[in-house]
Amino acid sequence: MPTVTVIQPKTADEANRLMRVAAYCRVSSDSEDQLNSYNSQLAYYSHLFDGSETETLVDIYADEGITGTCENKRTDFLRLISDCRQGKIDRIYTKSISRFSRNTRDCLKNIRELKSLGITVFFEKEQIDTAKITDEIMITIMGGLAQEESISISQNLQWSVRKRMQNGKFNAPSLPYGYSRINGKITIIRSEAEVVRYIFDCYINGIGMESIANSLNQKISKNEKGFIWCKNTIRYILTNEKYTGDAIFQKYYTANQFPYKQKENKGERDMYFTEDVMPPIISHEIFEIAQKIHKNVQLAAGHNKGDIYTFSGKMKCSLCSSTYRRKIINGKGNWTCIKHNLNANLCESKPITEVSIESAFIHMFNKIFMNYIEILVPLKKSLQELELKQAVEDKQLIELRRSILQLKEQLKVIAELRTKGFLNEAKFKEQTAEVNVKINKRSKDIRLLSQNDDTTLKDIEMLIDYFEKREHIMIDFELDPFGFLIDKIVVKGGQLEFHIIGGLIFTEEI
After folding, report:
1. Containing domain of residue 100, as a range?
2. Same domain, 292 and 363
3. Using one digit for the tens of pLDDT, what is the confidence trace for 61-76?
4. Cβ 46 vs Cβ 57: under 8 Å
5. Do 289 and 238 lie in a common domain?
6. Is 266 within a domain?
7. Whole-model pTM?
């Protein structure tokens, strides 16, 4: 006879258990009143659930605002996620998406995990509740908006880098093959330098890049850095001026909008040529000969860089960051990761049929077309509000600059008083330091306020205008809409992540 175990029904207390809620907030670490800010939010959420018959507050989790763009630095946020995984929380309340996350990818990743755990999130400012499945696409859009608020952080870093380039004090974070940094000093790796000289000697003596790569692979299967020699690696070495000891900085630059991506500098930004940056491996004469040969080879080939297809230069591998190239497999067009195509052991990404890429784009396009009024119009309104905020900040810039001029005048007066003997040395240094602190604070505020741009708003307006004029859904793949919309496609296993203008990201299954 089978064994039967009786599962007891839930008691009334268990069935009527209060929903356990948590509040997450980020308080500005730049604010002198940070403690009061935290206490006010503590009081707000405590009052919000005080006397509630359905919800009880478990805890309030708070991080400093300066870490908003980097999830692994937000210790309390990680504690919140850990408590959720341990089943301590049923629902999360937060002020806005920008408080919860400033990175769309992390935002969606965390929300999807929380939903899988049966935990919902309510964003008060946007009135978005993840308990409603239809809100996920709005979270993508609002997450993109939240990214706008963190752009200035990246731009401030870029400004600092450019200043160091201008002053000749910039140290590249990575060094080319043949060099290492020991105790802050750049030194030559003798064995690798011999390989670099071998490459230049072969090339100026008429041996092609691919032949040089094959020769090196026969001598040593892998170099010390762990990659297989290929034609592109040889080209990089032959065209890298750093092997002469000099360096050109900002040959590539980072665009000032999400998604951040590197672009070749074709005159959009200043470049900075600096001599004697590192010890030379080859002479300027040999380098110039190699450049002339390379230029002549390009001219002889008619600048042919290979056939250009619809997805050329658009597709990136999420596993190894390599680009995808077109390849005919069984008579059909496929796109494969370059590193996987070179050696399947280097990357596990599988080829994708061209038809499936086109089908995924059509599905994504029609999704936006059918819902652009609900998606893009509210986003445009929010961006316009940010633009109005910028107008206010412009007035603040004027006041800050005026204040700095007044403070500099104060420095002159203090210096004159010191010269005439009305101030002793100690008092002079004390007053000068106080004024300089104020000047530095206002200068920092000016940099933060002056880094915003309206690129995203213009992109969203273009999108709205385009879909307003569009009369029908897409049946077959169309090249013009693809070229207009898509910045890049990131391949993630069985999914394609479409990055479109305006910094928006949509994921489709393949």
Report:
1. 12-153
2. no
3. 887 655 444 555 678 8
4. yes
5. yes
6. yes
7. 0.37
